[in-house]
Amino acid sequence: MQSNNGIYKTIDLATEGWNIRMEQLKYGIIAIGYNRPECMIRLLRALEIADYKDERVMLIVSIDNSGRDDVWQAAEKCNWTHGEKVIRTYPERMGLRAHVLRCGDFLEEYGLDAVAVFEDDILPSPAFYNYMRQAVPYYQDNEKIAGISLYMHRWNMIGNLPFQPAYSSRDVYFQQFAQSWGQIWLRQQWKQFRKWYEGENAESALNQLPEHIRQWPDSSWLKYHIAYCVSEKKYFVYPYEALSTCYSELGENNVKTTHFQVPMQLDATKEYCFTMPDKESVCYDCYFERMYMAKYIQQEEIKDSELTVDIYGTKGINRTRYLLSSKRYSYQCLKSYALDVKPHENNVILDVDGEGIYLYDQTQKGSIPPQNDNDTMTYYYRFNRGAYWLFRYKVGRILRRLKK
How far out from the chain centre does Cα 340 lie? Predict the structure, then answer.
């Protein structure tokens, strides 16, 4: 039965007598739903079979008010044998943004150090908890970290082109792009975000985002978390091997597609090697462009503050003196690089001569560089020109309809 405060609670008897040591971090999982019982069942079954190392983990199922109880019934029937299960419901509809933000506040309410968060169209890897319990202690006190992603992007939604992060000797890279397709929130970092969100600068910070993100609907909470990363110079930690994937089910803000499905790491015994975000790490901005590229440019003494990296060609007007871009402009071209090696920034890092990427001095006029035979459509894709445009048209339609 529902209690007066809208909380359903089911306690697994196996947790009786379980004592948490004071020095042990307390982890939780949040499953977020609204009106899709089948999706909630799929998510909760996947969470049940994950490997929790014989540890007790709290599960919170948060269901926004849709005027029906089928999602609650599905959540109540699903087994959770790994600790305490709490089902939260609400007397009125909150909407996606308010609902998700409320879920983040469960960190403080339930005394959790970190939570793994999954909306009902996300599929977690059985190995996600192994990654979580290694990553959280490493990053929980780092002021540069806003959260930890379980998902790994293979598509740049800003440039509408494939994305592949550069490899490193570590198992993670960093990006000024918050995550909603499987993520870990840490208590102190979430408190800092919430304080920023309630402040007077949150709305104006949206102006720093790519136009594609700014156009997301008012129901989007994610664009605020991304704006927080950008304005406060913070990062999400991203795994090179995803621990969650996205179904993109048909719903309030989504269109059904498998385009954002990615391969997942399934090994729950993997030992991870982490690092901190700095100029020697692999870092990307909210446009999916590599940061700290100035040190790789051999021809000029350029500082990162003087350089705009826009190889995808999505940033539009920029105000730095130097520009690294695949677009052809009538500025003085100091150096040109091939568009051959992948990922594309490696053409600059490895100093590959050719045409396709250009280093401009925007204070000086020059002639437009010659057209590169290996243009973006043949560089990023392995099919012919006609198929490329058909594919990109369809993906563009998906991205315009897929809103957070």
Answer: 27
- CA 189 vs. chain centroid, Å, equals 16
Say how many Å lie between the first and final Cα of the chain, rounded: 33
235/6 Cα distance (integer angstroms): 35
How many CA atoms within 13 Å lie on the side-chain side of 150? Answer: 34
User: Could you say which DSSP state residue 133 is in?
Assistant: H
The 3-state secondary structure of 87-105, one letter per residue: EECCCCCCCHHHHHHHHHC
- Angle at which helices 222-231 and 187-197 pack, to 10 degrees? 90
Distances, alpha carbon 13 to alpha carbons 33, 85, 315, in Å: 26, 11, 55
3-class SS of residue 358: strand
Each residue's pLDDT expressed in tens, for the chain with a length of 404 residues: 344 345 544 434 334 333 333 348 999 999 999 999 999 999 999 999 999 999 999 999 999 999 999 999 999 999 999 999 999 999 999 999 999 999 999 999 999 999 999 999 999 999 999 999 999 999 999 999 999 999 999 999 999 999 999 999 999 999 999 999 999 999 999 999 999 999 999 999 999 999 999 999 999 999 999 999 999 999 999 999 999 999 875 454 455 567 899 999 999 999 999 999 999 999 999 999 999 999 999 877 899 999 999 999 999 878 899 999 999 999 999 999 999 999 999 999 999 999 999 999 999 999 999 877 556 777 887 655 555 556 666 666 666 666 55
Tell the burial category of 55 from Cβ atoms under 10 Å away from its Cβ (0-12, 13-18, 19+).
middle
Distance, C-alpha 39 to centroid of its chain: 21
- Rounded (10°) angle between helices 37-48 and 70-77: 20
Q: How far apart are CA 348 and CA 358, in angstroms?
A: 9
Residue type, 262: V
Strand partners, 237: 148, 174
Distance CA 404, CA 401 (A): 10
Residues 6+ apart with CB under 8 A from 304: 279, 291, 292, 293, 294
Single-letter amino acid code for the residue at 34: Y
Instruction: Map residue 206 onto helix, strand or coil.
Output: helix
3-state helix, strand, coil in the chain (%, to 5): 30, 20, 50
